[in-house]
# Entry
Amino acid sequence: MTERPHLAVVGAGPAGLAGALAAAARGVRVTLVDAAEQAGGQFYRQPAAALGARRPQALHHQWRTWERLRDGLERHVDAGRVTHLTDHHVWCVEGESGAFAVHALRGPAQEEGVTVRADAVLLATGGYERVLPFPGWTLPGVVTAGGAQAMLKGGLVLPGRTAVVAGTGPLLLPVATGLAAAGARVAALVESADPKALVRRAPVLAAQPGKLAEGAWYSGQLVRHGVRVLPRHTVVEAHGADRLEAVTVAGLDRDGRLRPGTARRIPCDTLAVGHGMLPHTDLAETLGCTLSGTDVRVDGEQRTDVPGVWAAGETTGIGGAALALAEGHIAGRSVAARLHGTTPDPRRWATASRSRTRLREFFAALDAVYTPPADWADRITDDTVVCRCEEVTAEQVRTAVDTLGAGDVRTVKLLTRAGMGWCQGRICGPAVAGLTGCPFTPGRRPFARPVPLGVLAALPEQETD
Amino acid sequence: MVGAACALYAARTGLDVRVVDRGPVAGGTTGAGEGNLLVSDKEPGPELELALLSARLWAELAGELGASVEYEPKGGVVVASTSGTLDALTDFAAGQRAAGVTAEPVDAAGLRELEPHLAPGMAGGVRYPQDAQVMPALAAAHLIRASGARLHTGRTVTGVLRAADGAVLGVRTDQGDIHAPAVVNAAGTWGGDLAALAGAHLPVLPRRGFVLVTEPLPRMVRHKVYAADYVADVASDSAGLRTSPVVEGTAAGPVLIGATRERVGFDRSLSLRAVRALAAGAIGLFPFLERVSALRTYAGFRPYLPDHLPAIGPDPRVPGLYHACGHEGAGIGLATGTGRLVAQALTGKTPDLDLGPFRPERFEATAPPGTNGDNNR
Amino acid sequence: MNPWELAQARPGAAFTVTFDGRPVEALPGQTVAAALWAAGVTSWRSTRGAGRPRGVFCGIGVCFDCLVTVNDRANQRACLVPVRPGDVIRTQEGTGRDDD
# Structure
């Protein structure tokens, strides 16, 4: 029993679960380390058990898939093949092939350190939402689209009565329909892209009939709930003194610039806004994995370029739950073969591999269509707070660039403190890059989350060599 | 930072100055520094003299540049946990006083008054009012701006242009030549490479150091605080003050925890072991930090020379080449004095300090035959 | 329709916590943020610079905008921390820590 090779999976979303199940079924001892109280990640986020939701599927898509994952996990846990560590927040993974240490903080308080040792690591750390600033975006009542969804799925709560859902990207559809189904009045769905552009990519779309059906279903739901859709529109400003009261939206022309005379004010108490997703890559970067743009680079087996470290799901590139499942499955099978000292045969996962190829193409097409409007950075007024943690304004960033000679995000950070606060630039990073006029690159964060100094000081000697 | 200070003082003598950096402003060790302006950690000798000169100049500049560089003359407090350590510290401070440092003995009750959150049971300490702090990246950016020098960032020096007689004519960069009769090497950790481009041996080596940054806090740490830990049983020749990490609050809120001296020994490759030692040292001084979160840690490369003194002044081997690098962990603090000395050398004035101990050619005997210095990148 | 009906939730018995001294009903399984939202509260932090109100933003523990003081422990992410009977929840001012 104890001789079985040991895999630590970080993240219990679709990718991590698929990877854990695939590896556990092939003779690998798996420890699944996850921050949430229940498995599922963001996509399959569940209401807390104590809320007694008897029909959680009403908040979800692809419930069957989830049931299969959930039941599989339960079987492996019961059989002792998988240890599921809930409420474990991983802040650093160190080591090398055959000897990794996964350092986590336990419980909601995150004041107690735990270290899991493993022969190999699968990073399935998921992603988070990108939000680009606009005047008023720090007002209470303005939340990320994913945040509104997470609070609904996990806590069965709505932030208010009347919502506007805005930004760009495929996430906005389920958020708008979800909020509407749960009883919010969704005053508008404001999408800066022109979904008609998707038609031009028909071949890629046609290869994904499931995705087309999904899109059609959401459109039907929008109609059913009377949600007004405003394509090629953007939120120009959020209004309110201490709380959101309304938003001004305006139309965009073909080049993504504001169309004069199209501004209109929509009263609302909630704005759910998002501009796509970004992967969590901190753990991978600290381990020394090479990134490709914002994504962890992996090979056909989902291996990173650091021996013993695999990655799957959003962390290797945003592509949704179905892609994450395929990648996680391939990763788990590869891990099992490699830890048993054999070379895996990719033909064994040909189905997952085909679906991975198609879904990556599909999301590349979506990505090309759902882009923020061209001059979003220019529309950020000088007095708009860009770094929410350190309250750094757009003017301060512009001064650092224009008069102090900063030309990159790191120098702007040093000169303005943008990105030095609690969130370590996760939220403001893309905005600062845009204002600085340079491409967004993920910052280096040796600590993937804040760590109490007492936990650092108490790290056991042998685990920090 | 050192380059920025050289630019400022050189420009103020009337010279036309251009600053060339392959990266951004403060992109090297400056951006990873804490901004310590310390006299407290230096034993009597040339480095301390340079530190005292620099401290005076920093105070002058702070008056001029205002709050933009976040200069804080907060003072340093060195604490001793045992009476034996306190005796050693007191002796050390007496020597510093003789060299012109203000060093005030503080008893246990006095320590509590200076630092209410300090761990109980300390034997005593010494207060150094001349210790101060700047925000290094802001300081570098604002000094360059104040100098009026032309700034070429993102431009890499690929060669040093020299006349037939060996005299410097300027630098070659990846974006064209810049002609100048004098070139100042303020390349910090990479100063050895730049010297090598001019055919001069200067063994600057990188030494890694770490800083831990906490969540923002109110002013719970008021000075720069570190512990003296005298190890009496070390062979007397090499005995020295070992120090804990420096713990200090900042204007922006976070507490910085960092090693400031070569002897602290946090210089190995990036590892949690170093971070653990920083955290443990800081909690030993300020127990409340145990439940405070570290938001980040980062590493920087200290540029050091074998005798732990910087190279400052003209290089007799290459007429027209001046050096201002190798300040180890003290480059921010020593930048102003260095800039002043380099400016004086450039204009043929008598320097405020004897440049003898900082002579760049002092390592000539160790130069590997037929090589151009160290290329440790 | 509301989220409870939609998911056919049958939560356990409600309990009371306080927010800035006033009683708030909460349900087992809710996070502090969910309980406050359900009570119509959307801000529970005042920034340390401009003193501006903040509440939930990302909802998944990434942005740290929802920091709140619970039972005298500052800097708790309201979107992650489960609410417990008797919790004393306070608006977090600035760093959430006193300087004495």
